[in-house]
Design goal:
It is built from two helices and 14 strands. It is an alpha+beta fold.
Length: 188
């Protein structure tokens, strides 16, 4: 009886192992057949557009700033990005690199892309008015996912209010704003 029990269960166990092995091998085979998207550097277009952010509290010196915003003329279908580079995978940003804050100031080159943040739609910013958010990070390279940016930020300044949705005015692609005049300021 014991011998029969062992024989039946051994066969069941071997059958389960065989099924698991077949599934495992087929998954590996499928993975090898799938095209792999490799991560590559984002090619930044030439831009003269620049946002200068001044009067940043001293505790942020040596930290890194990223900019995002909405262009008045794009009607909410494009977003402004201010960053120093990054990587993409399959056309989507996988990392972005911030600009180092020095002596209470940072100059951020500006680009615009479709609202989904696709690297392939990136071009130089040429708008005349925008709402702007500056986000500060400890590290220069961060994930562009909103949830990751929120979780990893150490400060935020915002130029947006309901009486003037696009308070940052650009002249020849350039604008300068002080933290002291932000609608939401970086704190000391």
């Amino acid at each position: 009886m014991f011998k029969e029990f062992c024989m039946k269960n051994t066969i069941k166990v071997l059958g389960i192992i065989a099924i698991v092995a077949v599934i495992g091998f087929s998954l590996v085979a499928c993975k090898e057949d799938e095209p792999t998207e490799k991560e590559e550097a984002v090619s930044l277009p030439s831009t003269t557009a620049e946002f200068t952010f001044t009067d940043i509290p001293a505790k942020y010196n040596g930290k890194f700033a990223l900019l995002n915003g909405e262009d008045k003329d794009a009607g909410g279908v494009k977003i402004i990005w201010g960053f120093n580079g990054g990587t993409k995978k399959g056309g989507e940003f996988s990392t972005v690199t911030g600009i180092k804050i020095e002596n209470g100031s940072v100059k951020i080159p500006l680009y615009i892309c479709n609202m989904f943040g696709q690297a392939k739609s990136l071009s130089a910013y040429t708008g005349s008015a925008a709402s702007i958010v500056i986000t500060i990070f400890e590290n220069d390279v961060v994930s562009p996912l909103r949830s990751d940016m929120e979780k990893n930020s150490i400060g935020k300044a915002q130029f947006f209010n309901y009486s003037d949705e696009y308070p940052v005015k650009f002249t020849n692609g350039k604008a300068t704003k002080s933290n002291n005049n932000a609608d939401v300021k970086l704190t000391n």
